[in-house]
């Protein structure tokens, strides 16, 4: 158990330091073309802040992960940490910003605390200025703590992982269109390109195209299903930034600036917020994922919810087929058992499991049968 738990990444370590400033924004200059301006912290309730992490005029230290030393980059090239064309952004729980220039395979990691940048030399992809489908414009953190980025046409999904201070990049393959998508294809520029994506705590990813179309895929199937087109957005709204804020809400931002919007995923209805953004936003990032909704729990399946715990308890739902008693064991990220409770007559039961005063962090909840067999295991995050 300790071996498996040691691989957990704390998505929300340091998240409390973000406080009201719960989202990071990749902003641009007022122009018909994409021109990078800066990375900054965004208060999703109030709007843009003056807390700029990196601008195009800065002279940051860039370290090559391959050469293991500080390097100098050509500021006039497509492949540098402050390239003019950048449209991807993701944030991990340690306040590190991941991004890629549009016309380069390079992946950069900006430490929001030290302002230093690590270059990950990526040889698995080849985005070019002449092939829009090969360019990366969507990036997010997954429920497993890894960073995922998807090309415009879905032709390549990359996973960026970190272990023992070393980064690795893996090509997960092609995200293809579901057979029922009809004319609303992820792989078509008119319906699927651009935008951003987010993840939920069930390993699903949601892609939001610049034109407002929404697709969903699971990493185990790699097929994007068209969910519909967002409603309630201004006609001029170009959906380029999407992120989950500290309250669990989906926030939408436009490359043309203006008012932020929230989105209800179940209805695809967008609502304007009071936060007024007076500059283009090319991408949004946060260390949060969508959490499961209690109303979506299937009574015929085993489940543990919520996965983002703020009230000191979780619910354990077990299917009708389960019999006898069960042990509810909770382990911390070091693999230590911090809670062990027993529930009786588990068939088709919903049980509230009090967690006590656990410190903020990631935990693993194991539900085991009387003979020690695991019924369900799920990661939770205690705020």
Write down the CATH class of the largest domain: Mainly Beta
Q: Record the strand order, biggest sheet.
A: 5-4-9-8-7-6
Report the CATH topology name of the largest domain. Answer: Neuraminidase
> Which band does the percent of strand residues land in?
35-45%
Distance between the termini: 23 Å
Cα-atom radius of gyration: 21 Å
Unreliable segments of 5+ consecutive residues: 1-19, 294-299
Average predicted local confidence, pLDDT: 86
What is the count of distinct domains?
2
- Share in helix: under 10%
- The count of β-strands is 31
CATH architecture of the largest domain: 6 Propeller
| Backbone shape | globular
Q: Explain this structure to me?
A:
This protein is mostly beta strands and 383 residues long. The protein has 2 domains: 23-285, Neuraminidase, CATH 2.120.10; 303-382, Macroglobulin (MG2) domain (Immunoglobulin-like). It contains 2 helices and 31 strands. The chain has helices at residues 2-5, 189-192, and strands spanning 23-28, 36-43, 47-55, 62-64, 69-71, 90-91, 96-99, 107-111, 117-120, 136-141, 147-151, 157-163, 166-173, 176-177, 196-199, 204-208, 213-218, 223-229, 239-244, 250-254, 258-264, 269-277, 281-285, 303-305, 308-309, 313-317, 326-331, 337-343, 350-354, 361-369, 374-382. The strands form 7 sheets. Strands 5-4-9-8-7-6 form a 6-stranded mixed sheet, with no helix packed on it. Strands 14-18-17-16-15 form a 5-stranded mixed sheet, with no helix packed on it. A 5-stranded mixed sheet has the order 25-31-30-27-28, with no helix packed on it. It starts with a helix and ends with a strand.
């Amino acid at each position: 158990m300790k071996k498996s738990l040691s691989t957990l990444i704390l998505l929300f370590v340091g998240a409390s330091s973000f406080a009201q400033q719960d989202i990071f924004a990749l902003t641009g200059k007022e122009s018909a073309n994409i021109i990078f301006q800066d990375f900054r912290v965004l208060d999703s309730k109030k709007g843009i802040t003056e807390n700029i992490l990196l601008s195009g005029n800065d002279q940051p230290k860039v370290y090559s992960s391959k050469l293991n030393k500080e390097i100098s980059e050509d500021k006039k090239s497509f492949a540098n940490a402050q390239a003019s064309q950048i449209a991807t952004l993701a944030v991990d729980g340690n306040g590190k910003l991941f991004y890629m220039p549009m016309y380069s395979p390079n992946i950069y990691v900006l430490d929001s605390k030290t302002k230093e940048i690590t270059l990950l030399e990526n040889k698995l992809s080849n985005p070019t200025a002449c092939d829009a489908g090969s360019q990366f414009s969507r990036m997010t953190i997954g429920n497993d703590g890894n960073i995922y980025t998807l090309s415009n046409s879905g032709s390549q999904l990359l996973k960026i992982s970190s272990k023992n201070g070393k980064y690795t990049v893996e090509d997960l393959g092609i995200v293809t269109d579901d057979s029922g998508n009809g004319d609303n294809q992820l792989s078509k520029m008119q319906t699927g390109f651009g935008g951003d994506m987010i993840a939920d705590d069930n390993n699903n990813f949601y892609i939001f195209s610049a034109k407002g179309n929404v697709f969903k895929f699971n990493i185990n199937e790699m097929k994007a299903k068209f969910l519909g087109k967002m409603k309630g957005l201004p006609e001029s709204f170009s959906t380029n930034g999407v992120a989950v804020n500290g309250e669990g809400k989906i926030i939408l931002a436009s490359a043309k600036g203006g008012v932020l919007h929230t989105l209800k995923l179940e209805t695809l209805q967008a609502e304007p917020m009071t936060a007024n953004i007076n500059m283009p936003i090319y991408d949004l990032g946060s260390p949060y994922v969508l959490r499961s909704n209690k109303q979506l729990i299937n009574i015929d399946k085993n489940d543990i919810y919520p996965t983002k715990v703020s009230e000191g308890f979780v619910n354990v739902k077990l299917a009708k087929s389960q019999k006898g008693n069960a042990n509810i064991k909770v382990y911390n990220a070091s693999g230590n058992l911090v809670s062990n409770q027993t529930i009786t007559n588990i068939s088709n039961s919903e049980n509230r499991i009090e967690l006590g005063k656990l410190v903020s962090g990631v935990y693993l909840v194991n539900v085991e049968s009387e003979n020690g067999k695991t019924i369900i295991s799920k990661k939770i995050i205690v705020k």
